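Deliverable D5.2: sample structural annotation.
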Amino acid sequence: WNNVAPGLGISVVLVFVVALVGEIYLRASTPPFVTEWPAVFDPQIGPRFRPNAEVATTNNRDYWTRQRTNSLGFLDREPVPPEARPGTCHLVFFGDSFVEAHQVEIDQKVQVVLERMSAERQPELKLTTAAFGISDTGQLNQLPLYDLFAHPQHAKVVVLVFMIGDFSDNSALIQAINHGLDPAHMPKLFARRNAAGDMELQPIDPHWSNFRLPRYEQTPGRLRAWLLQQSKFYRWIEEKN
């Protein structure tokens, strides 16, 4: 005990000092922040942001963004009707979280940057842009976005942003496994084979939540729950891992 106690005591003190310094630093260098994710279920689209709502997200390391959705429910500028932009070349982006890009402010998103670059380099093109991005969606899920939003905007160019995760996002079976859903009752648009073996669209089921599969939800212990609520340093450690 005489040999172990001093080393153990020093280790405990060092851990306490490191945690204290980390907590003081993070409290001084990071703003107070409350995450807000105003998601709603739209029977025509699936899960999406509520129109004209504030979205606040952070990873407690690199970004603390607070921005409002437009009247269509997307993290973009307010749409300009076709009659208000005669002679323009209108381009729209479709994609998942890479297009939604809640990590950056609206003026830093790809569609805004592209429109600004075009105005500087090729003003005669009169390029205007819009973006329709929803996290955790694939191209099949995004089909209603074109019908409801891009088509009325008379877009001349449509850009589908395809990421490696879209392979699984387009599969009802994989998404059902990942989220504990019934693949025959999905909250987004998918495709399936009919009795004749042909592919057809599988409509969104507005009652999808009634068919959720039972999932094991692990609740944090009292100490961890307290640390997650009270300590920025502990939340930072969990985010890093």
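Annotation notes: The chain has a mean pLDDT of 91. The chain is about 35% helix and 20% strand.
The annotation will be released with the project's public dataset once the embargo ends.
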